Amino acid sequence: xxxxxxxxxxxxxxxxxxxxxxxxxxxxxxxxxxxxxxxxxxxxxxxxxxxxxxxxxxxxxxxxxxxxxxxxxxxxxxxxxxxxxxxxxxxxxxxxxxxxxxxxxxxxxxxxxxxxxxxxxxxxxxxxxxxxxxxxxxxxxxxxxxxxxxxxxxxxxxxxxxxxxxxxxxxxxxxxxxxxxxxxxxxxxxxxxxxxxxxxxxxxxxxxxxxxxxxxxxxxxxxxxxxxxxxxxxxxxxxxxxxxxxxxxxxxxxxxxxxxxxxxxxxxxxxxxxxxxxxxxxxxxxxxxxxxxxxxxxxxxxxxxxxxxxxxxxxxxxxxxxxxxxxxxxxxxxxxxxxxxxxxxxx
Length: 347
Ligand code: NCD
Ligand code: ZN
Prior knowledge:
The protein is an alpha/beta fold. Helix content is about 35%, strand content about 20%. The strands form 3 sheets. An 8-stranded parallel β-sheet has the order 2-3-4-5-6-7-8-9.
């Protein structure tokens, strides 16, 4: 296998990221904008982003928080609720700023309490989305307390996603942060118009990492890390060259105190070293040549964006990751804190 020293690729896009709001947003948005040309920004603020008008306001806050002259383009999402209505979907599409609509089953994850309780009652909304080609972005886990937390994605595929795709044969759907081998197979075999994002942390780690030598709250994210066999299936999908699988970090920063708590928040903050982490995963699979399409092309093709215009460069070599980073008036512990990544960001 050749092991290149330098990696050049078109500027990547992050198809799933949490930039938060307020003072913390400036730090999270700057970290994402330093690497990515575009990002699909999740709407799970408190209160959530439910309308196009709210999405455009949020977009302006993000752009306003970046250093001047930045070319970063945030693509917004709406948060689907039991009260969403079809007309809003048409407005969202017409704005040309909204990439999709996010389905959080109520109670599935951080700030999902306003999420969907009755998906089947939203068929008119989903039909409007299919009509205007506004994709549905899915947090694919059931919330049934009788289903083991490690099996909630697999249960969602059969109970919810399969029937939803059958009811809406033209709706474009992204299974966000797919974490299981069954999820990968589902997406591979699904009809056209179905894709998935893959996070760096799910490509690099399995669930053992969460308990290595003690409890590792900074590796607690949702959906949870899964078995090593699942991780291998995710890596195989990422390096397969299939345009159905593309980069979405799910970088989800929380202030340190919210992670180190009796009931800590879910989320890994990978944004500051995101591309380096993906490079590690692809390098370990002997497939660095597959990284450019995965990171810089397939999401753009799915969302109908122009090809990336500039280029970024990574160089092989250890880079230390800080123990903590500023996060508004607080601190955030990034993924790999106190350790190193195997690639240097050149620019
Ligand atoms: C996300 C967050 O913190 O907003 N957390 C996470 O563990 N991924 C929500 C989500 O995407 O599930
Ligand atoms: Zn997320």
